[in-house]
Every structure is written in structure tokens, then in C-alpha cells.
Fold each of these.
Amino acid sequence: MSQTFEPQTEYKKLHPSSPLFILVDAIIKIIFPLVITYFLGGTSYLKEGWVIGIIAFLASIGTVAQYWFYHYWLEPDRIVIKSGIIFKSLRQVPYERIQNINIKNTILHQLFKVATVQIESASGSKPEAVIRVISLTQVKELQNAIKQKTKDISVTKDVTSDHLDSNQHASLPLYQITKADITRYGCIHWQALVPLAAVFGFAMQTDSMRERMTNFILSMVFYIRNYTALEGKLLNGIILVILLLIAAWLVSMVIAHLKLHGFTLTKNEHKLHAEMGLLTRITADIPIKRIQLIRIRESFMHRLFKRQTLTMETAGGVTQQTGIVMRWLVPLAKPEDISPLINKIEAKINLADMNWQNLSVKAWRRLFKKTSALNLCIIAILCLSWTTQAAWLLLTVPLWYGYARTWARHAAYAFDDHMIAYRSGVLFRNTSIVKINKIQTIRLLESPFDRRNHHGSLVVDTAGSNIALHHISIPYLEKDQLLKLHNQLTHQVSQSTFVW
Amino acid sequence: MKIFERRALAPEYRQLLRLLTWLWTGLITIPVFILTYFAIDLVWYSALVITFCTWLLLALLLKAYVMAWYKKYQYALSKEGLIINKGVFWQQLIIIPRNRVQHTDITTGPLERRYNLAKLVVHTAGTRDASVTLNGLPEKTAADLRKELIISIQDDSV
């Protein structure tokens, strides 16, 4: 191999406890699902226990080999990672291309004084590198190397007044979650319902499991009857559901506390540093200029507790399934605290002074027509294929009307020289904010219905955006309003430079 | 920096589209013949007539749509960037600012080569518009556009 395949500085190995962590990961990803299917008897070909034994054995050999062949070294401008047993790979990631560094630290990690480090660049849906695991001193070294490099760049690139005064409030926490807010977060998000629903959905897969599930639920109902001394399956069933929900609610709060314990967001010159977790500690470093989109979320539950959530999107497309993610800027805060916080992160974004403009006055009528048409279709299909009783659903027409009215009243957009923002939603209200220099393309859309009403919509695309979530896509705009907005945006975007 | 006003796709692309319309609808009529001749057991000539009529009808409908699509399809290069305007019923106007172009590809298929056409794919860092394709360009225009869009990339300092 050529010279470049050899380290220019001394190379570093993983921590000796590393195979253990790789194995744990493999168990969670491969062996655990296998064991579950084995016990549930879902698939017959796994009836023999030794199949799992062999897989486990191969996995443990694999982990040791992986550990043996994994090296990395820090060059002045990049990190180089060499890995692979049969298919060798050499990966070079320049420090300035690194989007985020996320560090995970579970109890097991703490026992060995190590951490899992994930390096994310802007490309792909997988992290650029997951170093599993290195000692805490090595982590510090890595962080320092990256910090040093990015500092050099920021100093040479822009010596602004902004840079000078940011030193004064360096590493002062921007936001710290309170215990009460974590509890509220648990109440709002009901995270325990997700695994519950998953178990339920899984149990409905085969007939035998469905039967077992029904029997289990029935026995629970009878069990409850012993305590309540009430007759009637329905009544006891309702009590069971209520009990389950209370349990899920309590568990949700516990999960929230485990996950968000001590969430702190710190601004350190041009970087954000977030930390959270009780048993599993996750640390994330995000350069502020890498933030592509900021989103304020507010569900009806949020409104009940008078709180809002602030999340962000960075250019890397890593999801919960492919790696460690940090999407929060603020898990929960009072609505009046949100805009000062955004302002502190991005000095040029000032939501408080924004001039929000409504969509077309006809917007509610068009939305009402659209939802009516859709709902009528659904009701018609239900009536024809199931029961004519479905026609009773027509009584919900006032709800559709109310929905359209509320939606149109709340939906609005705002823009100035530095950003564009759009808010919408009824039960789940979202506000998306994108800086002008993060806009990639601008799209105007016009459906046949738009043409009739002289309307149009405007969609803005950013890097690393999640297609399923709220983004800047403003419908029902009057034509002249739309064209004005479009011309201005196009001009501004072409004037500004996109930096990853 | 080169600029040009809105222009239509190459006239050769219209011919290509017409050819493709006949070809594709022709393929679709095969199951129609199978259905009428083998499944419903019609006499061979009535089966053929039905198939032919379906073909004609489908092809004319599709041709009308494709021609409308071709007529609506316009592109331009402004000071700001590449502009594409397309769509028959649902119309859209996309702007790819010059300084947001990451890289460009030119691809040509065998049929396109016969007509001296090329397809330009413009890649951005975005998500939904990660790549925007511009079909049916004359080869020279595609090369020019590509050159123009690449020059502007070198202007900006990332």
C-alpha cells in the first residue's frame, strides 16, 4: 500500500474493554431479537437453541477481531480511521468537515472509564465513524484536536466583534432543565406508550399470540374484579385501561428523568455543547454554523403545561436507528423564554420583532373544502364497505369547520434579511426557522385549485431536513404576495454563501 | 456570467417523446390483446381491432399530455441561478441558485444519443431537491450549462 495508508503520527488503539461494548451492541442488534422470536415461537426454524449459540459464538469472535483491527490517528488537519478484517477501510475526515461529535457514556462505560464517540459529517444517513470505545483521556485529545482546528479557522476567517464579546460569556450555560420541567416533559410525551403499542402490535401478528394476548387481558380484567367487586366486563375493562394509562404515565416520567437528567446547553464561542442523561450520559458538540433549521414545537399537551420545545436539524442525516442523535436545543421551556434563547444562539434571528403575515384570506375556505372532500370520501367508503352507521360521522362537520378556521388563523410566515419562518398547525403547532444562507433551493407550486384562486405555495429546501417533519412549505399564498416573497428570497439566497 | 431567457427543450426531444409515447403505449396493449383473445375468447380480428383502438386511444391521450408537458417545460439561466418551470396540472417553478450547486452530471441514453440530446443532473446539498434533472437538452447546451454552473461554484469559498 502507498504511504498514505500509514499513520504520520502514532496510531491509537481502542480501549481494551472495547470488545465487550461491541459485543453488547451486537447482542442488542442481532441476538436479542433472535432470542425473542425463539421464546415467542414466532418462527419455527429457530426452535433449536444451538443456532443461537453458534450465532453468539461467531459474534463474539467477530467483536475481538474488530477490536484488533481498529486503529485511528489524529493528523494535524484530519482524523484517520483504519478498520476492517477482510475488507479494509481507511477513512479520513477533515476536522472542519465534522458536523457534530456525540459522546455516549452508559453505566457500563463509567465502570471502565471509557466512552463511545460518534463523528458525524454532512454526508449520508450513517455516522462517519463510531469509535466504540476509547478512554476518556483519548476523548479529550480528540475533542481538543477538533477544537484547535476549528478555532484556527474561525480566527482566520472572521475576526468580528461578535467573536470578541463571545469570549466574555463563554461556557455560561444558556439553558438548564429543571426537575419540574423534566416531569412535565414526561407527562407531555408519554414515551412508555410507544413500547406498549409495539408489544401490542407484535402480539397481533399471529393467531396463537392473539389468543394468548386476549386471554391475558381477560384474566387481568377478572383479577381487577376481585378488588373492585364490580360486575360487568366493560366497567372492569375501562378500569384496566385507566390503570394501564396511569402506569404508562408514571413510567414515561421515569424514562424522561433517566433521559433528560441534567440537560444543559452551553454556548462556547461558535459551538453549542449539550449534555444529558442519568444512566446513559450523552454529550454532543454542534458548531452553530452547522444548524440548518430551528423548529419550535408545541402540541396541545405542551399548551396545557404552557411550555414549548426547541429542536434543530443539522446537515448529517443520522437517525435514532443509525446512531446517537442530539436534536434538542431545549427540551422544554416557557414560551416567553424561547425567542431570547434563539437570539442568544443565532444573534441575527430575532423572533420577537418579526412581522408575521397571514396567508390568503381564502385559506380557511380552501382548507375546509379540502378536508371536507377527503372526509366525505372516507365516510362514503366506510358506508359502502362496512356499515351505513358510518354516516353518523357527518355530525363532525362543525369540527372540520373549526379546524380549518383555527388553522388559517394561526398559520403565518415571516421573513427578513437573515431568515424565513413559517408556523402552522392546530393540535400540533410547529414553527420552522431557516437562515437565508442555509436555503438550498426555492420551489413555487401551483395546483389547478391554486390557479383558480390565484394562489400558490412556496417550498424551501435545506440540507439534512427530515421529510416527515414540519418545514418551510407555505401554502395558500396570494399570487402577488408569493411573487414578491419569491423574488426577494431568490435575490438574498444568491447573494449569500452556503457554508456546510 | 452567461444569462439566457426562458427557452423550451430541444425540438428533437419532442420527437423522442413522441416515439416513446408510441412505444410505451404499444407495450401496454399487449395485455389487452391477451385479455381479449385468450381470456374472453374473441375472434382474432375483433381482438386485434379492439387492441389497435385501445392503443390509438391511449397513445393519443398520452401524446396530448406529453405535448402539453413539453410546451410548459421551460428553463432559464438568470443572474441568480438555474430556473426550471414545468408541470401541466400541478405546475412548479424551481430555482437552484448558482452558489448552491454542489456538482453536476451529464448522462445520455442510447436513444438520446441518436438525437444528440443529453440529460443534466444538478446536485445540491438539499434533501427533497438533492438532485434536479433537466431532460432533453441539446448536447452543447448541457455542456455549456454545466460549465456555467461549475464556474460559479469556484467563485465561492466554502
Amino acid sequence: MTRNVSITLQNTEDARPIIEAIEADNPAAVVVQYPAMVKIDVPDRIVVKRDSVTERLGRDFDLQEIHLSLISLNGYIDEDDDEFVLSWR
Amino acid sequence: MAKKLGLKQKYQMMTRGLGWDTTYQSMDKVYPFDKFEGIKVHDWDAWEDPFRLTMDSYWKLQAEKERKLYAVIDSFAQNNGHLGISDPRYLNAVKLFIQGVSPLEYMAHRHFAHVARNIRGIGPAVAAQMQSLDELRHAQTQIHTISHYNKFFDGIHEWRHMHDRVWYLSVPKSFFDDAVTAGPFEFLTAISFSFEYLLTNLLFVPFMSGAAYNGDLATVTFGFSAQSDESRHMTLGLEVIKFLLEQDEANVPIIQRWLDKWFWRGYRLLTLVAMMMDYLLPKKIMSWQEAWEMYYEEAGGALFQDLARYGIKEPMSAAVARKEKNRLSSEAWAIFYQYTHAAAFHTWDIDEEHKAWLAEKYPETFDKLYRPRLDFWEKEAAAGRRFYNNALPQLCTVCQIPMGFTEPDDPTTICFRESEYKGEHYHFCSDGCKGIFDNEPEKYVQSWLPVHQIFQGNCGGASVEDVLKWYRMNLGADNLDFSGSPEDKFWSEWHRTASRAEAAE
């Protein structure tokens, strides 16, 4: 059975390239805007790719910078230098 | 040149490298608290912190969060940001927050420091240490932010004193006292998993988004700054549960009992949040029911499906919470409306537009069950008889909320449950609270119940006024209906002069 994983980010200038990268790398993403925040749901797995964010940001992005914009998440995390993944195993 | 360490290697070296086994004293003597609960851990190295955050990165990230937040707080104060909120009634949610929630952040700071010291696994010890520092940051930033409102609004001046005494604040206080008097693993299950993972989204996410929608720049900024740590805390909670379940099969029934208990304790505490969302926010983004469905039923549902492989079942009382979701906030509002003369925040009569919103969000319950009562109170108030209930309510021995909840299958009958222990009778609002008492009666017979304490003469005197003075409430300012309050007058006066100035231009 398919279950959603979810990530909620602040609706800020810092978070925008992350949100755009998630939308580009996760075609099934459903993005909902709320005051001050954006909630993104994807069936089974969400990936945030360092390279995709770097490309949009115009400078090297350290994936741990995601902590500055993160509000909430649902799913198991697996993080290394290049990818931040949320999934149900 | 040496190659830079990858995240996984760095985490390994800068976390695991910090732990050692003691030799002058036995490990059991150095860590005296992590066995008595019956939890069995065979291999602490199996602990995996998914965020792989090390102390050096932690300081860097937290410093950046603080710089951003304090720039906003400073600018907010300098520019009279309090004048930009949608409606002064909104501030009552913030009062409840500083009185009820911020002291819990400080308690969390203290107890995570205790857990960090007393758990022998270095992975969770480092995570608990970071969380302890986070929680101190949350308490401090909340106090700094809300201190600006204290210059202009009532009910914020004695929140710490009130937290230990006032009847409705004993609800959050007793919740946390219950958690910190448990062993370290129960505390982690209670706070990190049941509260942080399953339930705090409901406080910090839709409510803070609501703060943004109501023009409260300051609260939304500290709220989301705190919540950025919260994601890490949620992950710690999930990791704790999974780790303990995988370590030994004997841990499963212990964890299940804690989940059943702490889901219900946390859910009852969130009654206050349900009321904040549906009644205290003048501009609304989603109802309590919608938030419950999104953050508990959908997100929690997905998680419990996953935990089923360990033999874990959804908490026993989740079915009752599901039945209550379309009435919880209205039942809570009814309690606070009639006792607002004894509370350090205001309530008011609900206008037609707000009633229409409630009717739309709660089509099965609002018009039938709650609108008639609100209409009646409104008429009474208009006739100069604003209803205040002068009888002290019976409290539930466990959650300490006045007994205003209804039967799961009949929203027109108040739910009463009772247990007898050593010849004394104890009263409960629900099967959930009764079950918690029956499992550990020796603990809950010691509950400091505000109403009992008043009747025993321990709260400043025999009259309501004596008690409120003992609470350090400014009578006529902090309490009573919003209508006619000093802040109602201050706000209308400010808007009158502001529009006069505009007309003169």
C-alpha cells in the first residue's frame, strides 16, 4: 500500500531553491502553500538532491543547511553528503 | 592534503569517539537509571542517528538560527509590531502559550540534560544533549519575544508564578511532571515519541501558520525557529522507539503500554490547542479537525502501519480521539468561557461570521450542539448577565481538566469514570485517564489538584478573589470577558486616533 512521506519547509527566500529542487526531482510531489509554510507530500519517497539545490542557489549548498528551513517531516530519514531522503522502508 | 571526511565518517568519529566504558567504577553504578524500567538493550552501537549531526555543525546552524530570529525580534519591537496583529483577541493564544508551553520547554531542557547524562549509549546521549540545549533556546527565545507584548497587554507578567498554581495551567504542568518523574526510557517515549513525533506538529505547525496569518511576525518567527529543531527531536523520538523495539522482544509490551498512556496524556493536553485554533485565532487557516486528520490520522496512521511489524498497535484511545475531533474545541471553549473570571486570559461572545465558519467546519455538531449554547450566552451578556460559573469544577485526577468532556458515543452526556483505591474515590474524564490511573495509582494519588488544594485552604484563602490574588492576577485586567477589558479599550483608542490622523491628512 502506498503511503505518503512528507516535508514542511518555511516559505522563505532561503527555502525556495530547496522547494523548487524537490518539485523538480520528485514528479509526484503535491505542494500545498499555507501562510508562512509549504507542505510537500510524495508517495513512498522524497529525495532532496544537493546538486539540484546548488544549481538553483548559484552557490555550493550543504545539505545540512536544510535545518535552517525545516519545519516538520514524516518518514524515515537517510542523509549523506549528496542526498537527503525520506521514505517508508 | 588530507581528504575531507564524508558526513557518515564524520558522524562516526565525532560521536562514537566520545564514548568509553568506565573502569574505576562499574558501568551499572555510573548509569544507575537505565535498567529499572525493564527495558533491555544489548547493543548500543546499533543506534543510528539519521541526521548525523555533530556538535561542530550544530553550533554553526544554531548560531545562524539565532541571528535570524533576533534580527526579527529586534525589528518587531522597534517598529511597534504588536500594532500589526489582526485583532487583539488573538493575543490570548499567545498568553496561553507563555503561561502553559514555555515553562515546559525549560523543563524539557533540564530533563534532556538528565537523560543525556544517564543513558549509556553515546549516540542517544549526544542527541539528548543537543535537544537539551535546543529546549533552553526555545524557552529563552519565547520569553524574549513575548516580553514585547507584556509592555502593552495583560496576563503575561507572572507566567512563571502562575504556571505552578493556576487551575488550567496544572494541565500542562502535571503532564510534564508526570514525564520527568518516569525513568529515562519512558520519558523518551513520552516526550520524544508520543509528544514530539505524533503530536507537536499540531501545536507548532498549523498554529504558527495561523500566527503568521494573524500578523504576529514575532510568534511565527520563534515558532518556526523552534520547529526547525523540532524536526530533529521528532527523528530522535522515532529512532528511540525503533531502536528499543529491535533490541529485545521483551521491550514490546512495555513500549506499547507507554504509547497507550502518553498518546492519551498528550492528546488531552492538546485540548488547549484545539481551542486555540478554533476559537482564539481571529483569522483561521484550518480547523482542529482538519489538523488532526492531517497530522495525526494521516501521518500517525502511516507510522503505525510501519510499526505493526514489531507487533505495535495504534494507541488504545486513538478511536476515542477520532470520535471527539468534531467537538473537542467547543467543549473546551465552554469550560473557559464560563471560568474566564478565574483565568489570566480573556474569552468573548462568538460573532456570526465565526459561528458560520464553525458550522461549515463542523457540520455534524456545531449547529445542533454548540450554537444554541453560544447564542444563549450572547443574549445573557447583552442583557447584562454575562455568565460566569462560580462553582469550582470537579477535575479529572489524571489530566486535571475540568470534567467537561462527553461520552465517546453520546456528545450530550458528560463522561464520568471512577476508581477506588485504598478506600478513596478518584474521578476521571475518560477511559483513557482512568486506565492510566489504574496502572499506577500510587503515582496519581499524589496529584496536586488545584480545586482540592483551594478547598483544603492551600491557595491564598477561601474566596475566589483571595485565590486569584495568590495567583498574582491583576483583577479586572488579566481576567473576565475581553469586551470592556483594558486591552479592548487600548486597541479601540489606538485605532480611533489612527483613523482620525488619516482623515486629517
